[in-house]
Amino acid sequence: MGGQRRLKALAAPRFWPILRKEYKWTVKPRPGPHPAARSLPLLLIVRNVLGYATTAREARKLISEGHFRVDGRVRKDYKYPVGFMDVLEIADTGEAYRFLPYPTKFFTLHKISGDEARVKPVRIENKTTVKGGHIQLNLHDGRNILVRVKDPRKPVEDAYKTMGTLVITVPDQEIKGYYQFEEGSIAIVIGGRNVGRVGRIVGVQRGWGRKRSIVTLEDASGNMFQTSMDYVFVIGRESPSISLPEGAWK
Questions:
Q1: Neighbours of 83 (CB within 10 A)
Q2: Are strands 144-147 and 68-70 parallel, antiparallel or unpaired?
Q3: Which of the ends of the chain has fewer CB neighbours closer than 10 A, N or C?
Q4: What's the burial of 78, exposed, middle or buried (CB within 10 Å: 0-12/13-18/19+)?
Q5: Are 127 and 138 contacting, i.e. CB atoms less than 8 angstroms apart?
Q6: Torsion angle of C-alpha atoms 117, 123, 126, 128, degrees rounded to 10
Q7: d(CA 124, CA 145)
């Protein structure tokens, strides 16, 4: 029973900031908007990353008291998975962070302003047509946004494409911008050996599905690198639409 409720430390994703040799068990993330391989349970962020608690018990207490918001909503579940592009806010201090991919470490909590904390980039994973001919956009963080279509025979409102990125407000999900996955767009890598690198898309070699399609990017210094299409997350066109860690894009 314990193995179902908890996770062995040695089996946790390698980027989790935990002491694997000192503790047999760690917190198991709740099934939610992000997979475990690309997220971190809220308890580990509060205790291990931000240092607001020294023990799991202290962290659970702080979380249950409602001191932390994710994407504008108070989260009291210490197992809640926080993933890429999520906004974490500390209610007592007004501090805000975005969970971003970062080279070698896999992730970083990047401090952002209060204004930026109100918006979030979300990648369109796929699209479906629902009753009435409306378009449902299924996003990387488990959200679904409905695009209402006046005439299903000529859905002019259907301007959004898979792998493109919406910029939405949180928590009310109003669409404020859209960046298409195409040559010339700026993207950040969310997995693989180039995780956290930022570059402009200069070429796409299509394969069988996203994982076998290769994208070539050029960073701000003119260096070329490649990664799987599945790891490419568009964040802007002429410049990034969000702030990034120092040196990520100049």
A1: 22
A2: unpaired
A3: N
A4: buried
A5: yes
A6: 30
A7: 10
